[in-house]
């Protein structure tokens, strides 16, 4: 077991609820099982550790109405969910990279408040749920990430490869962790230490304040494990390395080199006066006694030890510890992960959600009568009727009670009523009360979600500047994405612009061979009619939306427009027209990505992406595979 992994397990076991949890990115392997076994060993025996399967429903997660017990008792009976059952313990969330945004929001709310607010199915209660979460991320690609809202609430972000290491004795025992849990509440932290962690977070480009708070809690847990009642510098360094370093989005700026001070002009010393009178040497001060000298030295040493460290120096040392822990290649993949987390909710290979009452995937139920072919949801209907069974049975019993007795009719000697016959049909027996009383207001129908088709529109800059830089790599990336769209049965369209016009090389199609042929014959050179290209992409996206499909525009350009809408050359008018066209595309609500294909990131391309409302991706050193991965991240392809 690696040292950092074991340290994270121990720190998390000390304060699970305060640290939020661990985002563990690892495949299902022996190394991951060893870490989970270590965590289970370090947790107290009274702390539950439960596993949450993927796609767990709200009733199983939050709690709800126990339908069988409610129907039997005739009153609402609550069912405790997994979150409330794990109070004081740890939850294991399997395949966390695939959870929906709604489920991530529910987990985040419980992690923030430490309680479950149950207000559904006629129930209204608040249950404690102070717990920690281990999110098992099994994503195989960099674009498969935890939802940002959930990852932000977990203190530790850790990776484990599939190779199991030799077993070693754990760094801490369960008894030491239990002692640290009792001590962590008494650990004090100086304001200079908090300031150093905040400064390190700012230098690493971490915007969320939760990271600094988690780092402070981790430092206190490290001090508690060390048996100290105060946070020291080594505890802060551990927190910065394990909490801040994995969240870094940039390297800290290099210290500014101080310019050497100009040499001072040499001034000739004043000439000595002739035959100066010798000055008498100063008399040395009287030396204090030896005991007084020793007392003075001891006081100086005590002052030096009690003097707090310089906040600036402490912050620099903490930053150095965090920077040294940043793994190689992390910052290169952060851009792609950030794009995937910030993608539009309507983007994705499956297209936008469409309302459909009869077809698609069931996504719950709503109140309503089963009309026009809609399907009744029996379970939700019974759930809505269950709390009212006792009242409804009492109401039925009161309405069916017999009235006052009437005198019997005259009968003959035989005892039979007149006009009666032995063969007359018998009177029907009294109706028994129904076991379940369902009324009209209880009906629920099933809701369905149907996903539309996605059409990716590739807008390729084939102008002279782009051809000189990276047109070949852009073609390679588009070909990889076309193959990916073909596998997923998505439609693709290719639009190229050069010279003075923008033309549609390939209308929306699923033919991979046609798409490759259209790209292979694309020449490069000429001006950059960027405004015309964006107008053409907006028009094509509008046609796709009218067909009920979801368009995604991927613009590969360097952003250097030099041809205006009317075809006249000029960089100034062309840039203005391009920004205006980008604003019009943004107003349509189409998801877009702008890939800056220039050798160095251009501010013009970034401004164009902002005006377009598109994700901006600068890959000055990326190849076709990197572009393919980045576009897949924005398109939400899992």
Q: Secondary-structure map with pairings?
A:
Layout: H1 3-14, H2 16-19, E1 21-25, H3 30-42, E2 49-52, H4 58-62, E3 63-65, H5 67-73, E4 78-80, H6 82-85, E5 90-93, H7 101-113, E6 115-118, E7 125-128, E8 132-137, H8 148-151, E9 156-159, H9 174-183, H10 191-203, H11 209-225, H12 233-244, H13 290-306, H14 311-324, H15 330-341, E10 353-356, E11 361-367, H16 378-385, H17 389-399, E12 444-451, E13 454-461, H18 464-469, H19 471-487, E14 491-498, E15 501-509, H20 512-520, H21 530-546, E16 550-557, H22 571-587, E17 591-596, H23 603-612, E18 615-618, H24 624-635
Parallel strand pairs: 1-8, 1-9, 2-5, 5-8, 13-14, 13-16, 16-17, 17-18
Antiparallel strand pairs: 3-4, 6-7, 10-12, 11-12, 14-15
